[in-house]
Amino acid sequence: METMRPAAVCVLLLLSTVLGSFPQAQHVTWKSTNFKTVLSWEPKPSADYSYTVEFSVVGRDRQRNHHCVRSSATVCDLSSSLTDLNANYTADILSEPPLGVTSDLIEFPYTTSPRFCPYKDTDIGRPDFKLEVSEDKKKTTLYVTDPLTALFKDGRQLSIRDVFSEQLHYRVTYRRNKSTGKKSADFKTNIIEMSGLDRGESYCFNVQAFIPSRSFKKQLGELSHTQCSEVEDPSISDVYSVGVIAVAIFLILLLIAIIIAVTVICCRCRRNARTTGKEGLPLRDV
């Protein structure tokens, strides 16, 4: 029997490896906002193989989400599966035969995800808020609504404050309308009374969640839409300072005094002119 050449042996081994294996998943990433957590990867599988996701707390036994077994999808929603929000999770994406197809392989190729902790790593979405200015224009109040999460407890959907509790703050960024200079302040409550604002001025506000206990890159949530206060028919005292108003009043009184003085002088001149004219006339004969 003729001995096979080394090159032929290498080709057969390569073919065996290719035929008995499946492409591994690549670019495995976690995408999470308000605890809506989705694992994604590439590429889209062909008809010859599928993907199965196995996840676990680091160091514990792996579990499967039945929606992500022998699937042709390249995403897996694990929001309801990651129940320990403070734990570190990893996931393996296995490349397996399609559903209903068997294989002689004992272990299938897989790719492991980066670590993910829901409490520390989920992004916080933009909050909504209502802006209210008091009738006397002295007080501006922001009423912030906590964003809802993808988590439920006892049939109730949880908000981010239900999860983060006293760790949740809100950062308000504000500026005068039509101005580029900005200031910011942090608050622990949902009802925020802004102080130090100029009465009668229009201000623009943005709000975002702020969690100081997190890493620097994950402390701030998404910025809200901008809302600006309105100033309707401002009074003279709102537009001008007391000094300007006093000067204006003084000038008006001075102008009135000048007009009165000129009028009086003119009247006297006319009266004198009439008197002089009468004295210069000749006496009539009796």
Describe the protein in words:
With about 290 residues, the chain is of the alpha+beta class. The protein is built from five helices and 16 strands. The strands form five sheets. A four-stranded antiparallel beta sheet has the order 4-3-6-7, with no helix packed on it. The longest helix has about 40 residues, at about 240-280. Residues about 5-20 have low confidence and may be disordered.
Helicity range: 10-25%
Residue-averaged pLDDT? 87
Please tally the helical runs, counting DSSP H or I stretches of 4 or more residues.
5
Which shape, going by the Cα principal axes?
rod-shaped
H-E string: HEEEEEEEHEEEEHEEEEEHH
Going across the biggest sheet, name each strand in turn: 4-3-6-7
Quaternary class: single chain
Low-confidence stretches: 6-19
- Fraction in beta strands: 25-35%
Distance between the termini: 178 Å
List the helices and strands and how they pair.
Layout: H1 6-19, E1 26-33, E2 36-42, E3 50-57, E4 63-64, E5 75-77, E6 89-96, E7 110-112, H2 118-121, E8 128-133, E9 140-145, E10 148-153, E11 156-159, H3 160-164, E12 169-176, E13 183-187, E14 191-194, E15 203-210, E16 227-228, H4 236-239, H5 242-279
Antiparallel strand pairs: 1-2, 2-5, 3-4, 3-6, 6-7, 8-9, 9-14, 10-11, 12-13, 12-15, 15-16
Keywords:
four-stranded antiparallel beta sheet, 23% helix, rod-shaped, 286 residues, alpha+beta, single chain
Short structural summary:
This protein has 286 residues and is of the alpha+beta class.
